[in-house]
Structure formats: C-alpha cells, structure tokens
Amino acid sequence: MAMEVLSRLLADYRELNTFHGIKISRGSPKITHLLFADDIFLFCHATTDDILTLKAVFDLFSDLSGQEINLSKSSIHFSRNVPSDLRRTLCTLIGIKEMSSESRYLGHKQEAFSASLQAFKSEISTYLIQFSNLYSKPRSEILTLSWVQQCLQLLPSMNRAFKKLMVDINYPMNRWQVPLVDDYLKESLKLLELLNSITSSLSHLGQARMSLSYALSLLENSPSLAMKTLEAIQPLGSNKKWEGEETKARQEVVRYSSGEEWVICQAMAIMKVVGFWICGVVASSLCGDIESCLKLRKLIEELPNSSLMSLHVSVCEEMMKKGGLFEVKEVNKGVVQLGAVTCGGSSSDEAEELRRRVEILGKLLKDVGNEVNQLFSEVLLERNNLLNSLHQKQ
Predict the structure, then answer these.
(1) Is the pLDDT higher at 150 or at 5?
(2) CA–CA separation, 391 and 394 (whole Å)
(3) What band does 251 get if pLDDT is binned at 50, 70 and 90?
(4) Which residue, 64, 79, 99, sits at the end of a domain?
(5) Which of 40, 228, 258, 284 would bridge 293 by S-S if both were Cys, CB 3.0 to 4.6 A apart?
C-alpha cells in the first residue's frame, strides 16, 4: 500500500513535468520508476532540479504514509558521462551514497550474485580442506608421484566449480565483455606455459629412467660397462620461468562494470592463486627445488584458507627432509646399493630390486604425464571455445 502511494506521487510529478524520467530508446515512453516487492528503482536526470524534486517526493510520502525512506540502504548509480564533482553534489543534496562498482545490481540480484560467489569460494575451500586432510597425518605420502597426480586433479575440480558459477549467475563465456575475455585468455595461456614446464620436468625424469633401464640391461653381459653407465637421477634444478610469478598472481582485481563481470573476476582471481600454487608445488617437487617452493608462501598468505597454508608448510618441511620425490630417492638409493655390492661380487638381488623401483617410477611418471596432457587439452579446448564464440558474435 505504501509503495502505491509513492508510485502515485511520482506519476503526479511526472504529469506536472517537474520530475523527468528517462527513455531507453527514442520512441519509448519515459520511465520514472519500477517496483519490485519492497524495492523501488527510480530514474531521473542528473540535475539538481530532479534531485530536489525527488527529495520533495520523499518528504511528502513520509507525511502522507507515516513511513520514511531508508536512505542508508539506498544508493545512486550514475551514467559514466556524469562528472565526479556533480555526482558528489547530487548525493549530498539528497543524502544518498553513490553505488560502488561491485554493487551495480540492486536488491535480490546483487544478493544472488554474492551468494553464488560465496558458494564458489566454499566449494574451492572444501576441495583444499579435503586434499589437505588426506595428508595431514601420513606425511610420508607427500612428495610421492601419486600425491603429485592428486595435486593436479584439483585443477579440473576447480574448473567444474567455475563452470557451475557461470551457470548460477547466468553469465556464460559467450556473453563476456572484451576486458574479461582478455584476462581469461592471458591467464589460461600462463597456465598452459606452466603445464609445459611441468612436462619438461617429467621428460627429464623419464629420460633418466630410460638411461637406468639401459644400464641394467647391460649388467649381465657387460657389468663393467653397466656400472659406467649407471648413474643416479639428478634433479633438473630451478626453473627460471617460475621466478616472480608469485607476485604477478596477486595483482589487484580489476573493477568491472556489471555484477556478473565482478563475480567472474573475483572467481578468476581465486583460481589464479590456487592454480599457480598447485603448479608451483608440483614443479618444485619434480625439480627438487626447495627455494621455489618456499617462495610460494607469499602467494597464499592472502588467501583465507588455513588448510592450504598448513599443507604448504608440510610440503616444504618434507622437501627439506627428503630433497625431492620419494620414488626418485628410492631409485637413487638402489643405484648406490647396487654399486656397493657389485664391487664385492654378486649383485642379482640388488639389481632386481633396482629394476622394480625403476619400473614403478616409469609407470607413475606415465600416469602423471597423462594427467598433465589431459589438463593441457582441457585448457586449450576452453580457450578455443571462447575464441569461437567471439568469432560467431562478430
């Protein structure tokens, strides 16, 4: 009933031509207000006359209905052509604040966006907590190739949550604006580069494993040549591609004009931080690079997830103890043991044990390699789908 009073007052002032609405097109009628449940959307020119008229309507409404407009819960959205000094003047005249960039959608819609974003954050947090809990006690499992594979499997889980978010807010990629598309293409390209770097580390370990297999094949007929060829696996060492990326990943989130874009941008920022941490930890583990692993702490300090920080600390502690992957350390121990007994005589048991370890290493490297290749293909497919949708819009 009260909203009907306010609606009637606005209509009367419009008929008197003292309150001007807006036209959404040249031939359309002027719109002064829209009602939705307990919310009202008001449309007027950015002039002192319209604002003072609107203030007079509010005062008259309060006198007639006995109710007051809650100005503290109201806000004004200006078009981009309104100068900042005029905005401040008009806001002061009516006593209503200007709407922030992330609140361009009022009432239920902004609340829905916030709820969808919070649901996305909770889902990502749940994945990280569950993963962290898997290795909270059996810390010996950390820095195994099976653990590396499970780390990488967090990436498609996050991507599924991101797709669900796009559905929830009804903002698929084919509706994205150019700045958001550019950001996504840039970050997905960086992810492809990081996956390529991981592939290089896997390739290095694979080649070292093949050299060991070849040396073991020589052992029976040419033991002296086999021992000359038999060498422990050396880590690839620090990968310079990773340096400085922990700072880039924390760059300030760009402000976007629409509520959907703001939600997607916030979600992409989270995926960027967590995704880079995952790739960074995996690469550091494969290279035995404790220094790079320690630097990743800066990346996640601002992420409100204590489980991820706890896991990161555990990974760094285990890397300082072990120096690298468990399977690689086991193979290298076998190389040392075989070399020791070969000098003294029979070495069949040690050779067989080393073959077993090398075979396990090869199988696990293949599994992780397949995981990385699958991730690479999925990221590439998403990029291509986005680019195709842009071409279709043109």
Answers:
(1) 150
(2) 5
(3) very low
(4) 99
(5) 284
Distant-in-sequence contacts of 307-312, Cβ < 8 A, 24+ apart: 307/125, 307/128, 307/129, 307/132, 307/133, 308/128, 308/132, 308/274, 308/277, 310/132, 310/136, 311/128, 311/131, 311/132, 311/135, 312/277, 312/281
| Separation between Cα atoms, residue 3 and residue 98, nearest integer Å | 23
Q: What is the pLDDT of residue 24?
A: 67
Question: Does residue 75 register a pLDDT over 70?
Answer: yes
**Contact between 3 and 9 (Cβ < 8 Å):** no
- Looking at residues 29-36, what average pLDDT do you find? 75
Residue 341 burial (C-beta neighbours within 10 Å; 0-12, 13-18, 19+):
middle
Same domain, 147 and 80: no
* Angstrom distances, CA of residue 167 to CA of 161, 170, 172, 317, 394: 10, 5, 7, 40, 23
Mean pLDDT across 309-317? 84
Q: What is the CA radius of gyration of the chain?
A: 31
Question: Are 130 and 243 contained in the same domain?
Answer: yes
Considering 81, 99, 117, which residue would you say is the last residue of a domain? 99
Task: Give Cα 20 to chain centroid, integer Å.
Answer: 45
Same domain, 39 and 184: no
Q: Are residues 150 and 35 in the same domain?
A: no
User: Domains in the chain: how many in total?
Assistant: 2
Domain identity same for 88 and 116: no
260 phi and psi, to 5 degrees?
Answer: -65, -45
**Domain hosting residue 95, numbered range:** 2-99
Q: Give the span between the Cα atoms of 20 and 32, in whole angstroms.
A: 7
Residue type, 29: P
Range with the lowest mean pLDDT among 68-82, 116-130, 144-158? 68-82
| Shared-domain flag, residues 225 and 306 | yes
**pLDDT tens sequence across 101-112:** 545 444 456 677
Q: Are residues 31 and 54 in the same domain?
A: yes
Check if the beta carbon of residue 298 is closer than 8 Å to that of residue 203. Answer: no
**pLDDT mean across residues, the chain:** 83
Per-residue confidence band for 155, with pLDDT thresholds at 50, 70 and 90: very high
